Amino acid sequence: MATTLSNSFSAGDNATAIIIPSKPNPLIISYKQLSAEILSFQKKLAKLGVTPEAAVSIALPNTYEFIVAFLASAWQRGIAAPLNSAYKQEEFEFYIDDLKSAVALVPKGSYSKDGPAVRAARKYSAAIAECYWDGQEVVLDVKDEGKLKGKGNRKVETAQPDDIALVLHTSGTTGRPKAVPLTHKNLTRTMKNIKATYDLTPADRTMLVMPLFHVHGLLAGFLAPLYSGGSVIVPSKFSASEFWDDFITHGANWYTAVPTIHQILLKNPPPHTKPKIRFIRSCSSPLSPTVFHQLEAAYSAPVLEAYAMTEAAHQMTSNPLPPAKRQPGSVGIGQGVEIRIIDQAGKEVPQGSEAEICIRGENVTKGYLNNPEANKSSFTAEGFFRTGDQGKLDKDGYVIITGRIKELINKGGEKISPIELDNVLARHPKVGEAVSFAIPDEMYGQEVAVAIVPKNGEKVDEKEVK
């Protein structure tokens, strides 16, 4: 089994790995071409001075150059640190400073425009290089050597399973984002788990709609399909009006997305010719049973809701493929991980009882970077990671999330789950979207508040909702 990203897909294969849609001619890259391009870019990074454990901040949108830069950084034993290319300067500054990045990779033209990522990298003396596909190769155009000046011409490395391949930040309860290090072993384990959950094969082709700076897009939408020998269609961004055209033109048969994207697609006209969809995956926030049924009816495909976290290199549980049971309102069963429902004292509760969902597995991070306090409170004595989500196991072992422990509304001692309320509100025929939350209350401590967006052309009043 592959334990590093560098040996996780077939290097000599002429099968299609990546499709970048563009009219009239899409860019189609085989596994052989992709491997050669990654190795070529790895040599460029080594020449610049990227060594093991050096952080490479990647401020590029979903593009072929992002893919190559990400994989080459990890192959070179560097730490790939994907960033939202739309961040403001102070956001770039936080992430570049937090990881002491050696280099920031930015889109072509950013340097002359003195863009936010460029200014942030300069402030912390990170090298700055523009990165783009010129039709022949992915170019690494070094604009400023920064702290790597005089440190170039390093050797080309071979990644090891316990090397940190990726660092992503997750929002902390204290407000300061926590850095989550994920090793090659963490990532390849998740890739193997996802392949097994959805029975992915070289015959499968997915449409990537999630950003690659998020663990959802990177692992479920991109790395797992490559690990299974399938193909990934990578538009530069999600567009509801172009989605089905690209999906059908390039022969996709599944996709994974957040509920918001599923809802946007449902609001847009369906494709004229219904494509043969093997399954639709939903993850990253709760999918209401209403949307679940609408999706299945609209696209004649099984909808599989999954449950994931950055700290677990994405997937932890998922509803299985038919003929096994898929359960609306549940995030399914453990996929390559152990699941326990554990109380505050660290004891497992009886099946059916609610407490904190905890997980253990080879895909789970060993702990946050430079954050001993968070590590102490986030892991049990047996090494189970505390998700911060409250939930229970039903009689078949399916996980039902009942709320965030931090987000539960505490009304006079009664704990109320916003997720459950949201699901109830979303069933109202006039309600498009609904969210419930706590507001301070003198009598009860907290009171329940609800915000509602009516469906197009509908009016809904307080009385009707109540």
Protein model, in words:
With 466 residues, this protein is an alpha/beta fold. 28% of the residues lie in helices and 28% in strands. The protein has 13 helices and 24 strands. It has helices at residues 31-48, 64-75, 89-98, 110-113, 116-123, 184-198, 215-227, 240-249, 259-267, 289-299, 372-378, 418-425, 462-465, and strands spanning 16-20, 27-30, 55-58, 79-82, 103-106, 127-133, 138-144, 164-170, 178-183, 205-208, 231-233, 254-257, 279-282, 303-309, 314-318, 333-334, 338-342, 355-360, 385-393, 399-404, 409-411, 414-416, 431-441, 445-454. A 9-stranded mixed beta sheet has the order 2-1-11-10-12-13-14-15-16, sandwiched between helices. A 5-stranded mixed beta sheet has the order 4-3-5-6-7. A 4-stranded antiparallel beta sheet has the order 17-18-19-20. Strand 19 (385-393) and strand 20 (399-404) form a beta hairpin. Helix 1 (31-48) packs across helix 2 (64-75) and helix 6 packs across helix 7. The longest helix is centred in the N-terminal third of the chain and has 18 residues, at 31-48. It is globular and about 65 Å long. The chain starts with 15 loop residues before the first strand and ends with a helix. The model has no long low-confidence stretch (mean pLDDT 93).
